[in-house]
Amino acid sequence: MQPFTHETLPGRVLFGVGRVDEVPLEAERLGSRRILVITTPSLKNEADALRLALGERAVASWPDARPHVSRADADRARQTAREHQVDGLIALGGGSAIGLAKAVAVDDGAPMVAVPTTYSGSEMTPIYGITEGRRKKTARDERALPKTVVYDPCLTTGLPPAVTASTGMNALAHCVEALYSASPSPLSKLQAVEGASALAGGLTSAVHASEDLDARSEALYGAYLAGAVLAVTGMAIHHRIRHVLGGTFGLPHGPTNSVILPHVVRFNAPAAPEAMKSIADALDVRDAAGGLFDLARDLGAPAGLADLDMSESDLEEAAHLVADGDYYNPRPATQSDVLGLLAAAHVGRRP
Ligand code: NAD
Fold first, then answer.
1. How far does the centroid of ligand 1 lie from the alpha carbon of residue 351, in Å?
2. Fewer CB in a 10 Å sphere around the end CB: N or C, the chain?
3. What is the pLDDT of residues 12-23, one digit of tens each?
4. Measuring from atom 37 of ligand 1, which residue has the nearest CA?
5. Per-residue pLDDT tens over the stretch 226-266
């Protein structure tokens, strides 16, 4: 047994069909009487039902949270919370709604109930980000961690196939990188393998049969575990590449995950054989990189960076920025290694 450090973060998790009905009770448990409900336009009906259930306790609403929390949105949402003397937050939606609620929570310390409706995993982490200009700054703050997370698969049946695939592959990337991170623990490895297996099992059916509650439950359970490992384990080069491609070249977060992950896994394979076996076993395939590529194809995700309109002439600069960063990876990558990886990902070749 190798020495390890494992941090267990506080938090209460409710999981299951119909459990969204318990959200008002959970807010009450936290002592919240004046609640700001933060959501996104695609969840208007669900948010209306929630506000109705909260009654007079729903004192303010924020209906249109956007990705990557701009400084302006964070300031306005904080101002709204202050004006209404809010003492509780409910975030209903994906990482965008939860991210904005985190920006408010770190400002006023109001406890949050998160009700995630995508698979990206933000609800389990104390990490939050605010974007100014083209720079997104992320930080860790215990006040950003939701006090309670309510997972209800019913809320995910309306998630479009493309968002199901992209947020699901995002979750899978958390599990994969946790397995070869600098700081895995036996518990985080168990969670990562179980999470990857549930995601691989649930996502394909969820993409092809949106209303399949068994598949939705399995995928959401995987997303919960993926978020839990993201919260306590360092990540590696995949997250570094995604940060550069999103931040500097404006590539979309989710689809970029699907394209890059198989190539990163192929690159890291010689340095992390045990992790590769765990990933392959979780996906029930012989080869981790090939299996991830095939899964992304099954989910209808884009194959190459060219499909995301990334110009071939930008690859060199992207490789330079990635290699220049300070990040852990089990196999050190030179600029030319990264360029090779990005070139294969650009054309969408099966690794
Ligand atoms: P998202 O919240 O932006 O949602 C994607 C789209 O799906 C939006 O248009 C949304 O309105 C819609 N949608 C969400 N749930 C739906 C549902 N059930 N039915 C129909 N439509 C629905 O996407 P995301 O990928 O979950 O979040 C992205 C943001 O989260 C990014 O800003 C990312 O940086 C952040 N993030 C943060 C962490 C963290 O730990 N801090 C982790 C992962 C992602």
1. 28
2. N
3. 999 999 999 999
4. 122
5. 999 999 998 999 999 998 998 889 899 889 999 999 999 99
